[in-house]
């Protein structure tokens, strides 16, 4: 595909252009292939921020809404209809075509350009940063679609019909790419020192190394049930390599956004500025009931009052045809999206929760698992400038079950991870639910007196006969131009690592 590259002078303009493309335009025609755009001209210092903005604009907007609804933080309002198909598991092969195209023709192509250009010049800083963000973005796509273009992608006009690789092969390739990037000489004189032009870490190469290591940890844990021997060996090596894991957020931070049209957080921009209503995303009973049951103060950060309300209330998942009065439906609490919120790639809290699980798998019962879990809970509260210390203290609501079984510990870790991811990071919570089964799934609907707060329910208006969504359906637009797109599969077909 031929694509004109627009390298914006500011990051916020890149985000604005991305959102215009993905939310409002059908910008690819049948003669263009997003898996193989033509590499444009530019330099890593200008291309890389635009690529990060592209990842943030998809993972932090459309995919965040998908993840937020499927992770049952939010449900479609009964007074609007924008996201009914997501809530009801009624997506088709065309539902997210624009987002798929933007990921490949935007972010991934740009990362590949950065990698190729920086390798040629020996600029290992951008080689590492480009590789990490490529791996992060492609891992999301592999988890969503199971099979994606990878080994034959990004070849420009030399290959317009790349094959779709199996998800486990994509994982193996990405981990190998990360290992290669980490092996480079970061003291070489040819390395860039981008400073604030690195919009993720401000030019700190050690932070990029930890991001790479933490991403590998996430990928190994994602495959733990499908390939346990390989995953455990990989996790062990991460600890012996002694690179370390993230202790700060890997994110497109609040400093990159402004409270102005086309310049704000992509979820806020898409959901609050671009649509004709700001109340599509209502509080789901699933998450709100859990917050209320635990008297968790994060409720005031995650949700805001509905019209005329002075208390928090929720809608049962998928009950968007609710026939209560308009006043009652309007009073239901709303997702509290904000214009300056960061888009997390891997948050500090997620890093600690990943470490807690890894430690329990490598050295069951080690005190460091509790320490990592406690640090994760504190970091999750700190995202909202709150103190979670009392919750993890002895007798606290979220005290780590030191004497519990492995499954009890895993449930505690994943439940707290779920609680930490409401917002632009919601897609990861959905993946973790599919991998681990936590939070548990209820045997009754959330309006039943026997319902246990926080357990997932099948959406009331779901169309998949009680089966939960496990993936996305292959893009029909890509099918029109690429005969290698795999045969159609249902939304409820599990991806390769979902075997528990």
UniProtKB/TrEMBL annotation:
<keyword id="KW-0732">Signal</keyword>
<dbReference type="InterPro" id="IPR041662">
    <property type="entry name" value="SusD-like_2"/>
</dbReference>
<dbReference type="InterPro" id="IPR011990">
    <property type="entry name" value="TPR-like_helical_dom_sf"/>
</dbReference>
<keyword id="KW-0449">Lipoprotein</keyword>
<protein>
    <submittedName>
        <fullName>SusD/RagB family nutrient-binding outer membrane lipoprotein</fullName>
    </submittedName>
</protein>
<dbReference type="Pfam" id="PF12771">
    <property type="entry name" value="SusD-like_2"/>
</dbReference>
<feature type="signal peptide">
    <location>
        <begin position="1"/>
        <end position="25"/>
    </location>
</feature>
């Amino acid at each position: 595909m031929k694509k004109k590259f627009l390298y914006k002078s500011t990051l916020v303009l890149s985000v604005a252009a991305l959102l215009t493309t993905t939310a409002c335009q059908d910008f690819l025609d049948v003669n263009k292939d997003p898996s193989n755009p033509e590499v444009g001209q530019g330099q890593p210092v200008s291309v890389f921020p635009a690529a990060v903005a592209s990842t943030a604009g998809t993972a932090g907007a459309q995919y965040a809404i998908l993840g937020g609804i499927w992770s049952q933080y939010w449900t479609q309002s009964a007074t609007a209809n924008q996201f009914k198909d997501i809530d009801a598991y009624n997506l088709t092969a065309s539902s997210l075509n624009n987002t798929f195209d933007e990921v490949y023709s935007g972010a991934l192509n740009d990362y590949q350009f950065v990698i190729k250009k920086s390798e040629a010049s020996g600029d290992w800083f951008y080689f590492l940063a480009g590789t990490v963000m490529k791996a992060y973005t492609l891992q999301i796509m592999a988890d969503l679609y199971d099979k994606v273009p990878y080994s034959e992608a990004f070849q420009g006009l030399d290959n317009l019909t790349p094959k779709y690789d199996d998800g486990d092969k994509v994982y193996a390739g990405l981990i190998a790419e990360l290992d290669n990037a980490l092996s480079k000489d970061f003291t070489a004189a040819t390395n860039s020192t981008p400073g604030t032009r690195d919009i993720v870490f401000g030019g700190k190469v050690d932070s990029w190394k930890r991001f790479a290591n933490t991403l590998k940890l996430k990928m190994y844990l994602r495959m733990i049930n499908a390939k346990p021997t390989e995953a455990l060996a990989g996790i062990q090596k991460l600890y012996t390599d002694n690179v370390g894991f993230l202790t700060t957020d890997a994110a497109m931070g609040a400093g990159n956004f402004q409270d102005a049209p086309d310049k704000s957080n992509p979820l806020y921009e898409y959901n609050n500025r671009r649509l004709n209503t700001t109340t599509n995303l209502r509080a789901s009973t699933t998450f709100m009931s859990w917050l209320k049951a635990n008297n968790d103060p994060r409720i005031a950060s995650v949700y805001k009052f509905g019209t005329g309300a002075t208390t928090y209330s929720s809608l049962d998942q998928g009950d968007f045809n609710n026939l209560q009065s308009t006043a009652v439906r309007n009073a239901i609490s709303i997702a509290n999206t904000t214009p300056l919120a960061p888009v997390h790639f891997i948050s500090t809290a997620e890093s600690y929760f990943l470490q807690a699980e890894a430690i329990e798998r490598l050295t069951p019962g080690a005190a460091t698992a509790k320490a990592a879990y406690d640090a994760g809970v504190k970091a999750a509260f700190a995202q909202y400038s709150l103190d979670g210390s009392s919750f993890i203290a002895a007798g606290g609501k979220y005290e780590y079950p030191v004497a519990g079984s492995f499954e009890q510990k895993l449930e505690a870790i994943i439940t707290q991870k779920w609680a930490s991811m409401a917002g632009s990071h919601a897609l990861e919570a959905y993946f973790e639910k599919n991998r681990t089964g936590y939070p548990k799934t209820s045997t009754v609907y959330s309006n039943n007196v026997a319902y246990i707060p926080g357990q997932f329910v099948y959406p009331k208006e779901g169309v998949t006969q009680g089966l939960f969504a496990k993936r996305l359906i292959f893009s029909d637009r890509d099918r029109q131009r690429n005969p290698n797109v795999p045969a159609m599969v249902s939304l409820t077909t599990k991806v390769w690592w979902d075997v528990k």
